[in-house]
Amino acid sequence: MTSGPSERETRPSRISLHMIVGRHLPPEASSWSQDEIIEGLNKITHLRLDRQNIGEIDNLELLGKAVTNVYLQHNRIKRIENLDCLQSLRFLTLSGNKIRTLENLTHLSKLAFLDLSENLIEDFDIEELPQTLVILSFQENPCASKQDYRLKIIRDLPKLRQLDGVELTKEEKRSVGYIVSSDEDEESEEEAEYDDLFAGPAEDATPLTIKGVFKDVSSDILLRSQSRLEEVLREHKMHSNQIEEIRSESTMPDTARSLSSRLSSESEMMYPESRSPSSRSSSDHMGSRLGSQGSPLPPIQTDRRDSQL
Description:
disordered C terminus, two-stranded parallel sheet, alpha/beta
């Protein structure tokens, strides 16, 4: 039996040169020479391939040694594999996939941030986690509900500072045998140690501190939200132009004019910042009706997992 169109559309994708170039190099890269493309790939530090329907991790050897951050959240990945070529990797997010087994991570000697939330991991061998981890998440995995899960991880990962979005307490560290000092000087030294762990190359303008990790994730979310908003506004402008053409050519001007008016009214409701001052003042009374029930511009949905990071 032949697969229908909908089945073919849901087939997992593979990481390819075309996918990487499309997400990370400028549009004119399509006319670049092979050497220029290789040079561009070697400059990539943050690999963003989230939400690409990817079924497996491969072909990352196309990249250079500069890659420190990899974003593969919300794909269809079943195995952690083929990351050994990314020896500088410090930040890895694989949330929202279909991973069941913890594997192939110990060779990542610089990995400090690992997000495996929203997967299918029921159990794991703690030896499969790099000792360099500072921030780790197994949220919304079956394993996270097991008894002594948290203390088991804290005991075996001495550098860990945050687990499942919750900072480790001194009491937790003491309970598993760590000697925890309250001396401020020692705490400052510990902060410096973690900052060094996250710090980027000397030429980076903003070293990747722990706070920087979350700033980087938040910036990523804001950029995607802005991109989506701009796309919606472009579509609205295109539809408005189409309505104007219909109105000028139609034999029923009243109907076209009515349709255009409705579209303009809905646009003003959704995008109040695009209205002229006069039209904005004439509809100020609408805001009082909305009150606390909502905003004229509905919030753009972002991934809940991203917003926690």
